[in-house]
Amino acid sequence: MIVGHQKQREFLRKSADMQKISHAYLFSGQSQLGKKKIALEFIKLLYCSQRQNKFGEGQAGKKPCQDCRFCKDLEKGIHPDFFFVEPQKPEKDLGSISRAEIKISQIRDLVWKLSLRPSLASFKAAIINDAHTLNPDAQNCLLKTLEEPKGKTILILITDYPQILFQTILSRVQQIKFFPVSKSAIENYLKENGYSLKKAQEIALISFGKPGMAVSLAKHPQIMKDQEQEIMEITQFSKTDLVSRFLYVKDLVSKKKDIKETLEIWLRYFRGILLKKIKKSSNFLPEASLQAGGRLAKGGSHYSFNQLRKIIQTIERVKVLIDRTNINQRLALEQIMLEL
Ligand SMILES: [Zn+2]
Q1: Separation of CA 12 and ligand 1 centre (Å)
Q2: How does pLDDT run across 10-33, given as a tens digit for each residue?
Q3: Whole-angstrom distance, CA of residue 241 vs CA of residue 230
Q4: Distance, CA 314 to ligand 1 centroid (Å)?
């Protein structure tokens, strides 16, 4: 089940129906919005045997059946013409300095597989997940394929950080951007799946327009408690002195939690305060951005516009640095604490 993203899905469905398909796409947007699910759905649209008419063309308006061999094999990841590439963890665990990446060998392997004749479908397809983790060699290797595509292939790159990819790659893919979905869409989805109205509202409120997050919050109540706790903690930051904040950072890093997730929570909190401030001085705000902060943005009214902008920029910078470099996490988080 896919929640939201009607425009993007409609665009992809029409492209499939009209056989106007690009050689390469880039699905970009925050994590847990459902980009991977939609990419797979798009490939199902093109492969599903129930959707093809006798001329092998997609029938307008029809969804993938989810039941034919092609749909089922794609879902299980065993379709012989479909490949899924994702970052690999380093072989040796080098502690904090090691990070997962997509290596040139993975891309070479993919390029070779794509060059072979398809066995079941009329073309080959691949998803490269977390494409921002392609290392420079891997990006160069991929670039050659994008410049001179061989045979009929469809490549979908998925990333939370398109700005990290080479400009030359960005210029050769059709970018489709994804945004947080509306709170009501998430709420309805949860209600349809048997959650009470109260629970659905609670989860929709703190999943910040991310269907993937809503599903994991619904399935794992502990994550929800942790998230509420983190939001509580951040509202206290401005009332505490620097020493306490640095101790908090030390504790956070030593717990080896997913720091990126914590930073996202902080970002949403401060964006929420900023939006609340903007809302006061303007009557128009898109629903998706409002609910990204919404009622959670309690307190924080003492921050000025400029302070908030600076805090948000610092958190965003630190988030990219932690994700893409070997920066010392504690020092990086302390930088944020200095801004508060
Ligand atoms: Zn099917």
Answers
A1: 17
A2: 999 999 888 889 999 999 998 889
A3: 18
A4: 46
